[in-house]
Design a protein that fits this description.
Structural class: alpha+beta
Shape: globular
Number of strands: 26
Strand content: 5-15%
Radius of gyration: 29 Å
Strand order of the largest sheet: 4-24-10-3-9-7-8
């Protein structure tokens, strides 16, 4: 195209955007009482139009020249604060634009200026996008220029002769069966995910893979990104040596887990060489980070997770669009939950309080920032990109894996995938897009909804401890409480104290009585349909014999409950033992089975998955997996979720891996892909097939350097340990009464910082091919 046509087209687009901004400003001046474009004496229509045009022009120039500098200067702020500050800065620029009017016309109250600036930014951005998209050549040239400019800023060329890059998009919580259903046409309706369906018909292949026993993001993503998820028994668990509860989505815990995994694997992670990590729990060794939890607690210029925010907030219209979408999602959730109540849908959980806002953040804010960051990485020609889109997982927990609400989220995720694929067509290098999930979800009524008591109540009853009046009145609670007290030779007292706790105690709930003051209450935690029970006053892992001597009725109470599938304990005589109903036992270390194995119903691979977890250092005293009903595919979550994951049973353990057909298959024909660590090896192999990053192994270590307890390491030392220099836990501190009272009902327990670690200094490997 001749240059004069290119310049002319650009000028016409600028004029069109200017005209729309001017008209928007005139309309807002007529609607808003605190926004005026004329002087106190009154002006003619021509004067008002000139004032609007000059104000719109000045605002456009400031947005183009000053705005990127302001955003870059404020990147050290948290994402939420920066997002809210965008509106204040935008309004301030509008006030400046009005003040430079040579005639002195135009005035607005500060709060009104924020509204006017937001609407004008949205209108101008929409106009510019519409005009550019209609001109495919202009759109292509714009993306190409942006890509080359970014590469040159990094000291590189355009990258057109680089080997292909790889984008790994994780659709959190989408099981293989759910994906297959979303790709099929039903009743003459198009697929829920048409973009992915088109890929599968031509360019891509898909296969399921099987998770470890802990089928949740913390264990799966840690194994996928860092190559090791050993000693991660669940989403949350109690560690006796440090006296702390580890929670996978807590920044301090995520930083600790990442250091441990890097030490065991012997390398920094999948994304060590020219990688970017977006929206994940862990960095994967990447330098470019956005919304990564393991570094969220860090502060400082060099280790703050900042990349991606600039690309998103550099356009002030993004904040406006996201704010509108956020509010729309909150309203959508309120309407959907109200409809579920009116229709009396079952199973159903409470969806009030802050949940509408949590859902809106996951489905709108997190998605927008992550997708924008990935597009920026693609245009920069980055080699390996891993991003997690959590929207489906959040909605499916409360609405159900196959609900209408969840299908709508899948449709919006498909549009995000299509947008990323479109941008990849204009990247400075070819890109291969791999889709995968970290786990699936299994539906089912909650344990509390089905049986009237929570797992913590059942454990307390089995121990002969007081339980709530409501739980004590349920058949399960009454039977367990009577069995527990009979085993301890304590007569049952019918009286209920004023605090509503059964068992005849004079002391408040949680306080010991004269006959068991030596024992602290058990700590009961939940990870989907997986329960974890620890006795904090006993150092080390308790054996079956110790538990029976202390609480004779507990293990049988748990194993015989209809809502429990099996119980894992350690026996001094037989090693790891799985207990089931009616006295069934499966001794994992010897292979001996007494009665029918409780693991049979959970399908192939259950035995090996449980055996592996049974020998983790952090495995609790007792692990409980809920019952699984194969005919319905349902489980019972120990949390308030009707779509859950975390243990064995159903689709939660069968995520998917979808890859371009030109890559080698993940496993040989007839072989099953098992475990997150195995998936890590597959992804590394795919990177290497295109002459991609060779993940550098760790150098030999020097003398150890102590790091303060709970303090996350800097990026350079985040994975500096070698397998031989593993973490050295702190000495156990005595458990307190408040620790012991923590149960499954309070999953938000926020303890002290994590245990100290020994981090070994090393030479940073050269991150170039």
């Amino acid at each position: 195209m001749p240059r004069w046509k290119t310049v002319g087209g650009t000028l016409l687009r600028v004029a069109a955007v200017w005209a729309v901004s001017t008209l928007t400003m005139l309309a807002l001046a007529g609607i808003l009482p605190d926004f005026s474009l004329k002087s106190g004496d009154g002006d003619t229509a021509t004067q008002i139009a000139i004032t609007a045009a000059s104000g719109a022009g000045a605002f456009g120039v400031l947005s183009a020249l000053v705005w990127p500098l302001l955003v870059r200067a404020l990147l050290l702020m948290p994402a939420l604060v920066l997002g809210l500050l965008v509106f204040v800065l935008n309004g301030s620029m509008l006030l400046i634009a009005l003040s430079v009017n040579p005639d002195g016309r135009g005035a607005a109250e500060p709060e009104t200026a924020v509204v006017v600036a937001a609407v004008m930014s949205a209108a101008s951005s929409a106009t510019s996008t519409f005009l550019t998209v209609r001109d495919d050549d202009a759109y292509r040239r714009r993306l190409a220029r942006l890509a080359v400019r970014r590469r040159r800023r990094l000291g590189e060329d355009g990258g057109s002769d680089e080997p292909p890059g790889t984008v790994f998009l994780q659709l959190d919580g989408v099981g293989h069966a759910v994906l297959r259903e979303a790709l099929r046409e039903r009743e003459n309706r198009p697929p829920v995910m048409p973009t992915v369906a088109g890929w599968l018909q031509g360019t891509h292949k898909v296969t399921p893979w099987r998770t470890d026993w802990s089928s949740q993001t913390g264990a799966s993503q840690l194994g996928i990104l860092h190559g090791s998820n050993e000693d991660v028994p669940a989403f949350r668990w109690y560690e006796k040596k440090s006296g702390e509860v580890m929670v996978s989505n807590r920044p301090t815990s995520a930083a600790v887990l990442q250091r441990r995994a890097a030490a065991r694997a012997g390398h920094d992670g999948l994304l060590t060489v020219d990688g970017a990590s977006r929206g994940n729990l862990f960095t994967g060794g990447a330098d470019q980070l956005a919304l990564v939890l393991s570094v969220a607690a860090r502060r400082g210029k060099h280790n703050r997770s900042r990349s991606g925010y600039f690309a998103y907030f550099a356009d002030p219209a993004n904040a406006t669009r996201t704010a509108v979408s956020f509010l729309a999602e909150v309203v959508r959730e309120i309407c959907q939950s109200t409809r579920a109540k009116l229709r009396r849908e079952t199973p159903r959980v409470k969806r009030g309080g802050l949940y509408p806002f949590i859902r809106a953040f996951a489905t709108v804010v997190e998605r927008d920032v992550v997708v924008t960051a990935v597009m920026g990485d693609i245009l920069s020609g980055r080699t390996a990109i891993y991003a997690d889109l959590v929207a489906y997982d959040e909605v499916a927990h409360h609405s159900g894996p196959r609900s209408r609400d969840a299908r709508q989220v899948l449709a919006r995720l498909d549009r995000s995938i299509a947008l990323i694929a479109k941008v990849a067509e204009h990247a400075p290098r070819d890109y291969r897009i791999v889709l995968l999930s970290d786990h699936g979800q299994s539906p089912g009524e909650t344990f509390a909804g089905a049986y009237g008591l929570r797992l913590g109540d059942l454990v307390r009853a089995g121990c002969g401890l007081p339980v709530s009046r409501r739980a004590g009145r349920t058949p399960s609670g009454a039977e367990a409480r009577e069995a527990g007290r009979a085993a301890l030779h304590r007569p049952e007292k019918p009286r209920v104290d004023g605090d509503g706790w059964c068992g005849g105690r004079e002391a408040p709930a949680g306080a010991g009585s004269a006959d068991d003051t030596a024992f602290s209450d058990p700590i009961v935690l939940a990870s989907g349909n997986l329960g974890l029970i620890s006795f904090p006053d006993v150092p080390g892992r308790m054996s079956r014999e110790q538990i029976d001597a202390r609480h004779p009725a507990l293990l049988r109470t748990l194993a015989d409950h209809p809502g429990v599938g099996f119980v894992l304990v350690r026996s001094e005589a037989h090693g790891a033992v799985v207990l089931g109903a009616d006295g069934a036992e499966h001794r994992l270390d010897t292979g001996e089975v007494l009665g029918a194995s409780p693991l049979t119903v959970f399908g192939p691979g259950a035995e090996s998955a449980v055996r592996r977890t049974a020998h983790f250092r952090n495995t609790p005293d007792i692990m409980v997996n809920s019952a699984y009903h194969p005919a319905r595919g349902t489980v019972h979550a120990f949390e308030g979720q009707i779509g859950s994951h975390g243990g064995l049973g159903g689709e939660q353990g069968h995520p998917f891996l979808l890859w371009p057909a030109e890559l080698t298959p993940p496993v040989a024909a007839g072989e099953e892909l098992v475990g997150a660590e195995r998936v890590h090896q597959v992804l590394r192999r795919w990177l290497e097939e295109a002459d991609g990053p060779q993940v550098p192994e760790k150098e030999a270590a020097a003398a150890p350097v102590e790091v303060a307890a709970g303090a996350p390491a800097a990026p350079e030392a985040s994975a500096a340990q070698t397998p031989a220099a593993a973490e050295v836990p702190a000495e156990p501190r005595p458990a307190t009464a408040s620790d012991a009272a923590r149960t499954v009902q309070d999953s938000r327990w926020d303890g002290a910082p994590a245990a100290p670690f020994t981090v070994v200094s090393r030479v940073v490997p050269n991150k170039t091919r």
